[in-house]
Design goal:
By secondary structure, this protein is an alpha/beta fold. It has nine helices and ten strands.
Length: about 260
């Protein structure tokens, strides 16, 4: 019996390693079905003491994940924005707090919420063709699932601003140089590389790993907690602007947005 309540999140367990696959064609986007499913999966894996490591990847060869399904935001409904933002937060914070080691195998485009879920993992391995970005401001939104907080901690304020404020997309090699990913591998090899690294976790005491992870995160979590809440509040506040609806609908209609700055 699968521990996932949704076909959009597929899980397999081999020995001490769980492989979690984002499978929501065509771009492995996140919605109000897949986000709670990921949270439930993490809860089940936390309860399975035989699982020491988790590998997260995307189905197919092109996308790790393209982020949120923007159809959810076309109406400009702030209540919907709050519900989706909270679902993102609960899912990705559950992943960040997974008691074992989580490794993202970035096998293609990691955009918006797709990059944010990778940021919530402990380690990131990217294929050489991968592209990473937080382009939410391009569609009148902002990263609401930890992007403004976790990206800044990894790459520093300057590059976080380039990626978030200027919409700069970076490749895998540059991501490695910046410390956004820990390893770059040839196309098609991220899952194998991540699984091989996850296997090394089995040589460690699971109790020691969990304690070390809590300590590594302790100072960071004190600083990040308020920022994660503020991030979602600012995300919802954007839904009172005309630019939010213009940006989202321009994207869905495949045209350039006409910003009004109000």
């Amino acid at each position: 019996m699968s521990i996932s309540p949704s076909e959009k999140i597929k899980v397999s367990i081999d020995g001490n390693i769980a492989t979690v696959v984002i499978d929501n064609p065509a771009a492995n986007t996140w919605d109000r079905e897949s986000l709670p499913a990921l949270k439930q999966v993490i809860g089940a894996l936390n309860a399975d003491l035989s699982v020491y490591a988790l590998v997260l990847t995307g189905a197919g060869e092109k996308f790790f994940s393209a982020g949120a399904d923007l159809n959810q935001f076309a109406s400009g409904d702030g209540d919907v924005a709050r519900a989706v933002g909270e679902a993102f937060g609960e899912a990705f914070e559950a992943l960040a707090d997974f008691r074992g080691v989580s490794i993202a195998a970035i096998n293609g485009f990691a955009m918006g919420g797709g990059l944010e879920v990778a940021l919530a993992c402990d380690i990131r391995i990217a294929e050489e063709q991968a592209a990473l970005a937080l382009p939410e401001a391009r569609v009148g939104l902002l990263p609401c699932a930890g992007g403004t907080q976790r990206l800044t901690q990894l790459v520093g304020e300057g590059w976080a601003k380039r990626m978030i404020l200027c919409g700069e997309r970076i490749g895998a090699q540059q991501a490695a140089t910046l410390g956004l990913v820990e390893e770059v591998v040839p196309a098609g090899e991220s899952l194998a590389a991540a699984t091989a690294l996850a296997a090394k976790v089995g040589n460690q005491s699971p109790s020691s790993v969990a304690a070390c992870k809590r300590l590594i995160h302790s100072a960071r979590n004190i600083a990040i907690a308020d920022g994660l809440i503020a991030e979602r509040d600012e995300f919802v506040a954007l839904f009172s602007t005309e630019d939010q609806q213009e940006g989202t609908n321009a994207f869905l209609e495949k045209r350039e947005p006409a910003w009004k700055n109000r």
